[in-house]
Amino acid sequence: MKTILFLSSLILSFSIAAQDTLSLNQLRIEAEKNYPNLKRKVLLEQTSEEQEKILRSNYYPQWELGGLASWQSDVTTLEIVPTSGNVPFSAADLFVIPEVSRENYKITVDVKQLIWDGGATRQARRLERASLETELSSLDTERYSIGETVNTLFFNLLMLQTTEQILTLTRKEFKTKSKALQSGIDNGTVAAWNADALQAEILALEQKQSSNSIKIGAIIEQLNILTGKTYSKNAIIEFPEPLPKILPTEILRPELK
C-alpha cells in the first residue's frame, strides 16, 4: 500500500513538473525572438552601413586604370637600296632599321579627386540615415503591436483559466448536492424534479466547460504561432507582477515618440 502511494505521488509530481509554465514576460521575449522582421532589422543596418561607406568614398581619390592593345595587319617598312660596286661597304653594314611591331600596347592611370560637389554627398548621407531611422521605427511599431497582441492573448487566457477553475468547483459542488438529493429521493423526503433541475444545471456547466476549453486551446495555438513554441492547453499561467506606475506624459508607442 505504501509503495502504491509513493508511486502515485511520484507520478503526480512528475506530471506537474512536466507542465509548461507561461509568464507574460517570457511570452513577449519569445514572440520578439520569433518575429521574422527581427532579422530584417539587422539586414537594414548592415545595408545602410555599406551604403554609408560607399558615399564616404566619394571624398577619396579615384584611381582608374586603363589599357589598350592593338594589332596592325600591315606596317610601314623601309628598304635600303644597295650601294654601287665602287663603295667597299653597304648601308646595311652601317645601321639596321628595326622592323615595326604589329602589336601595340598602351596602359593609362587616371587619378580623380573630388574638390566640391555642392553638398550632394553630404545630403545623400543624411537621406540614407533618415531612411534607416524610418525603417527601424516602422519595425519597432510592428514589434510593439506584437507585444500588445501577446498581452491581450495572455490576459484572455488567464481569465479563461480562472473561469475553468470556477466551473470545475461549481460542477463538483452540484454533483455533491445531486448525490444528497438522490439520497432524499430514495428516502421519499425530496421530490424527483429537484434532482432533474440540478442535473440540467450540471449539464449546462459541462457545456460551458467544453466551450471554455475550446477557447483556451485556440489562444494557446495563437501563442504558439507567435512564439514558435508548442505549449499545451494545460500549461500553468503565472500571474504577472504589478505594472510600474507610468506618468501621464510618458509616451510608450514608438510611432508617437
Main attributes of the structure:
257 residues; mainly alpha
Furnish the topology, listing elements before pairings.
Layout lengths: L1 H17 L2 E2 L1 H11 L2 H20 L5 E10 L19 H4 L8 E10 L7 H68 L4 H36 L8 E2 L20
Parallel strand pairs: 1-4
Antiparallel strand pairs: 2-3
Can you tell me about this structure?
The chain is mainly α and 257 residues long. It has a domain at 20-36 and 140-256. The protein has helices at residues 2-18, 24-34, 37-56, 91-94, 120-187, 192-227, and strands at residues 21-22, 62-71, 103-112, 236-237. The strands form 2 sheets. Strands 1-4 form a two-stranded parallel ribbon. It has a two-stranded antiparallel ribbon with strand order 2-3. The radius of gyration is 44 Å and the shape is rod-shaped. Residues 1-17 have low confidence and may be disordered.
Short overview:
The protein is mainly alpha-helical and 257 residues long. The chain has a domain at 20-36 and 140-256. The protein contains six helices and four strands.
